[in-house]
Amino acid sequence: MKAHTNLFLIPFVMIICLSVFPGLANGSDNIPVEKLIQERTDILKSVFFQQITSEKGEQLLFEIETQPILAEDIKSLRINKATEMDLVKDHEILVLEQTSDLLGYKSYRAEILWYMKGADGDYIQSIDYSIVLKRSGKGYKLSEFTPVSP
Predict the structure, then answer these.
(1) Nearest to residue 98, comparing CAs of 147, 33, 40?
(2) Strands 87-102 and 105-118
(3) Which of 3, 11, 50, 61 has the highest count of CB atoms within 10 angstroms of its CB?
(4) Host domain of residue 102
(5) What single string gives the DSSP state of each residue in 75-109?
(6) Considering the domain boundaries, does residue 134 fall inside one?
């Protein structure tokens, strides 16, 4: 009877460990997050600085985002003008760590260094974010990208 108990206990313990420590399951899974952040930044910048139309930007965002961030970004595209925005010259992800992987959602904590150009010149800004990806088909889409107050 004890041997049969171990057959159920060992997989159960493994499932619990992989749920609590999602990084153990498949190593670093940060590349989709980095790619989605880069694509989102490029799309928003292209629309704000009139390299593409807002309609085209909305179509491109639909491919990489889901609610609630999709609605927020579309609203932003429709009401903001390039003159109100500082230019993102580049960004660098300093910290990106997965905090959970549960029921089709992956959550991350990130620190991003933004290289910006504003009316007063160039500047650098470091911001912490809470990021959530939602499973969509075979991949993931950006669901939340929220600055975290220190």
Answers:
(1) 33
(2) antiparallel
(3) 61
(4) 30-147
(5) HHHHH--GGGS-EEEEEEEEEEEEEEEETTEEEEE
(6) yes
8, part of any domain: no
Instruction: Considering only the C-alpha atoms of the chain, give the largest distance between any 2 of them, rounded to a whole number of Å.
Output: 75
The answer to the question of residue 110 being in a domain is yes
Identify the band that residue 23 occupies on the pLDDT scale cut at 50, 70 and 90: very low
Between the CA of residue 142 and those of 5, 33, 69, 80, 131, what are the distances in Å? 41, 8, 7, 21, 8
Judged by DSSP in three states, 146 sits in strand
| Residue, of 80 and 19, whose pLDDT is higher | 80
Domain count for the chain? 1
pLDDT classification of 5: cutoffs 50, 70, 90: low
- Mention every residue, 6+ apart, whose C-beta is less than 8 A from residue 58: 74, 77
Decide if 25 is inside a domain.
no
Q: What is the CATH number of the domain that holds 125?
A: 3.10.450.50
